[in-house]
Design a protein that fits this description.
Layout (H helix, E strand, L loop, with lengths): L1 H21 L23 H31 L34 H10 L14
Helix pairs in contact: 1-2
């Protein structure tokens, strides 16, 4: 059903572009070959043609709007609303850092806590700013 509606939507878009291009503008547009006044050889008078093209543009624009809304509704049907946080995958191959037994802090396991753990375990300490390197 969605594919059929997309094809109808595309046909409406093509027709809408064609009707808009046929309308007379200040520069003449693509409708400049009609002779301006419409004369005997013309299909319609200038005013009748303008009214018909304006009406066709309005109808096609309304159909475009309706098909756009229906396609948007169809695209969202069947989707369940879920939280971004619930669906976040855990990084592969990493383990959670050990949380200290002290009071829980909002940023427990942060960079400062990891450096503090390395310092308490006797691991290598990062160079201090301003300290000379050998």
């Amino acid at each position: 059903m969605q594919n059929v509606l997309i094809v109808i939507h595309l046909l409406i878009v093509i027709a809408l572009v064609g009707v808009v291009l046929l309308q007379r503008s200040e520069g003449g547009g693509l409708g400049m070959g009609s002779g301006g006044g419409g004369g005997v050889g013309g299909f319609m008078t200038g005013r009748g043609q303008a009214n018909a093209l304006t009406r066709a543009t309005a109808i096609l624009a309304g159909l475009f709007f309706i098909t756009s809304l229906v396609l948007a509704v169809m695209a969202t049907q069947g989707r369940t609303q879920r939280s971004i946080i619930d669906g976040a995958p855990a990084p592969a191959g990493t383990t959670a850092p050990a949380v200290p037994s002290g009071p829980s802090a909002p940023n427990a396991g942060g960079v400062l806590d990891q450096l503090r753990q390395m310092q308490n375990q006797g691991g290598s300490q990062p160079p201090q700013p301003g300290a000379p390197t050998r």
